[in-house]
Write a structure and sequence with these properties.
169 residues, alpha/beta, eight-stranded mixed sheet, 5 helices, 10 strands, 20% helix
């Protein structure tokens, strides 16, 4: 099993605005300008929080967003969207129950990423950095104050995005 975070942040480290807005990202470029397709083909499972899922629900066909993976949303509400299953509880325990030989993608949200980082369960951080400064917003990293080391594997440029690929040491 390998756990991945793959996502985009601003130069100052934010996933979204304080209001959870992503206009800054949509106005910067598209997924066609990144390694997204190559990455997604390797994934078996996606995990996301309810705020990330709310962005997906706005799409014309949300089920088409992640068609070849098992998709789990950590939420307390019922989901009426085909292709997505609601789960409750601890992300660490949930990931352990998924079993071996699966690539798990933490799609978005530090509420899922932080507990996994706290337990040293994140194997790869694939971070695209957009040339945007928000000054405030929802930060990517909010884990406990503990040293976590990663090794830089590669750096690539995709249009306006810099992609940094790190693996756990």
């Amino acid at each position: 099993m390998a756990v991945f975070f793959y996502g985009c942040i601003t130069l100052d480290g934010y996933l979204a605005t304080k209001e959870h807005g992503l206009d800054w990202l949509y106005e910067t470029g598209s997924s066609e300008e990144t390694s997204y397709d190559e990455f997604y083909r390797q994934m078996d499972v996606t995990l996301m929080g309810c705020r990330t899922f709310e962005e997906i629900e706005k799409m014309e066909n949300p089920a088409a967003a992640y068609p070849s993976t098992e998709n789990y949303v950590f939420t307390h509400r019922e989901l009426a969207c085909p292709g997505f299953a609601a789960v409750k509880g601890n992300p660490v325990e949930f990931v352990k129950e998924l079993g071996p030989n699966r690539n798990i993608w933490v799609v978005g949200g530090n509420t899922i990423l932080s507990p996994l980082l706290n337990q040293d369960m994140v194997d790869y951080l694939i971070i695209q950095v957009a040339p945007v400064l928000l000054g405030a917003g929802i930060p990517l990293f909010t884990q406990e104050e503990t040293l976590h080391r990663f090794r830089l594997n590669s750096v690539r440029q995709y249009g306006q995005f810099a992609e940094l690929v790190y693996c756990r040491m």
